[in-house]
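Thread: quick sanity check before group meeting

JM: Hey all, I'm pulling together slides for Thursday and realized we never actually wrote out the predicted structure for the chain we discussed last week. Dropping the sequence here so it's in one place. If anyone has concerns about the input, flag it before I start.
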Amino acid sequence: MQHPFLAWLPHGMDFFWLFLLAVLLFGANKLPQLAKGLGKSLGEFKKAKEDFEKELHSATTETKKPENQTLSDGTSIPSDPVKKT
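JM (edit): ok, ran it. Output follows.
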């Protein structure tokens, strides 16, 4: 028994009819060009996704050391006022 959520997906002869419709709409010469363009697009999307994940990972693991603060009168407040000895 097929899962009800996947029941609307094409299967069997549906793939043949979809392929035939694509050939009629785009022509046999255009299909390889369309497939090549789709493959390049998917590759670029995958690369952008990986770059985004790397950037997100580096941003979450990066620890920033707090800097000393300076008051209006010129005195400096250390970032860690309590020194542990």
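AS: nice. The chain is about 55% helix and 5% strand. The first strand starts at residue 69 and ends at 70.
JM: adding both to the slides.
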